[in-house]
Amino acid sequence: MKIAVIALGKIGLPLAVQFASKGHDVVGVDVNRQVVDLVNAGIEPFPGESHLQENLSEVVVAGRLRATCDFAEAVPGADAVVLVVPLFVDADAKPDFGWMDSATADLARNLTPGTLVSYETTLPVGTTRSRWKPALEAGSGLIEGVDFHLVFSPERVLTGRVFEDLRKYPKLVGGLSEAGAAKAIEFYESVLDFDERADLDRPNGVWDLGSAEASELAKLAETTYRDVNIGLANQFARFAAETGIDIYHVIEASNSQPYSHIHQPGIAVGGHCIPVYPRLYLWNDPEATVVRAARAANASMPEYTVGLLEGAYGALAGARVVVLGAAYRGGVKETAFSGVFDTVLSLEKRGAEVLVHDPLYTDAELEKLGFAAYHFGEPIDAAVVQADHTEYRKLSSAELPGIKAFIDGRKVSSPDRWDGAIYRVIGKA
């Protein structure tokens, strides 16, 4: 098949590589010329994705993957077009479709009969049918369900392990017609491999959810569940700390029963998915009080965690405090909705001199984010763990000379590593 992948980001590029590795002719489209040039040179444009560099080199050298900035070079005559263009939300949770609208318009102008179009970007329920179908029809002069087919098939992978997750989880599809769904099933079965999953009630593979709306909701539901679950864990943790209970023992005990799956509490919920998709759901269902309360609970955790530091250290005015971790989670060089921003603001509000450390970022990169960089061995008064980088599990007072309080926002350490300093972790008194 000839396949076009629109947007060669941290999800789109691994998808394009995966499709090409199955022997198909893949053209990736991206607005960033630097990304296009790197892909065509067989060089990964971003670090940290397992197996991406080796797989990319293989398919580029074999001539099965190339990149372009020109939709007219990639879309006409394609058997399938997969879009993974980012969708953003503003502070009021209103979706900003700007990038997706632009990409859809370019796609429509170059769409030819017989193409399957699959959107993989997470969307509010109803977007595929009410926004993308009329836009594609108006821009192409073609009729969906007759000249081309449109489906929604959400990406369900985490950056850093995309190839592993593509095999692990069922590929969900929802069409606007039975014929479109059938074409999507045929397509994804030809480009993906699936691990055996004895824990599933039906075989792992491509699952037809019956409609685009059901597929849209499935992605929002699975991610919103995680946000609500973490919000509940954070509420339990705050109560446990007030009453002298170790919440981690409680969660371990509760989860020994098969119907309990309580997540871990922590300083922040970051990334492109968990903080964002519940707000897309709320855009559809503004009366979802449980979802709204969980989002508010999680958003309050950086302030709460700095409050723990203030309680342990005392007044923070003039104190040198390092926030450990700019990334939203350990091992991933990405700051989307990272808790570092609210943590730094909360510390600065109290008059602290704030520095930031992250093993994945250079001093210049941290400064570009608006932070002053910290280096191990420099005198410091206190520290707050924001990201669970593996490197932080080995830290002790030797690397942070002068430290008087260590607030563990990710449960990466233990009191015995902090001689002469007060150690606090979320969820324990």
Compact overview of the structure:
The chain has 429 residues and is α/β, with parallel strands linked by helices. Helices cover 39% and strands 14% of the residues. The protein has an 8-stranded mixed beta sheet, with helices on both faces.
Describe this structure in words.
The protein is an alpha/beta fold and 429 residues long. 39% of the residues lie in helices and 14% in strands. The protein has 15 helices and 15 strands. It has helices at 12-21, 33-40, 52-61, 71-74, 98-110, 127-140, 162-168, 178-191, 212-243, 247-254, 277-284, 289-299, 301-313, 340-349, 363-368, and strands at 2-6, 25-29, 65-68, 80-83, 88-89, 95-96, 116-119, 149-152, 171-175, 206-208, 320-324, 353-357, 382-385, 405-408, 422-425. The strands form three sheets. Strands 3-2-1-4-7-8-9-10 form an eight-stranded mixed sheet, with helices on both faces. Strands 12-11-13-14-15 form a five-stranded parallel sheet, covered by helices on one side. It has a two-stranded antiparallel sheet with strand order 5-6. Helix 5 packs across helix 6. The longest helix is centred in the middle third of the chain and has 32 residues, at 212-243. It is globular, with a radius of gyration of 23 Å. The N and C termini lie far apart (59 Å).
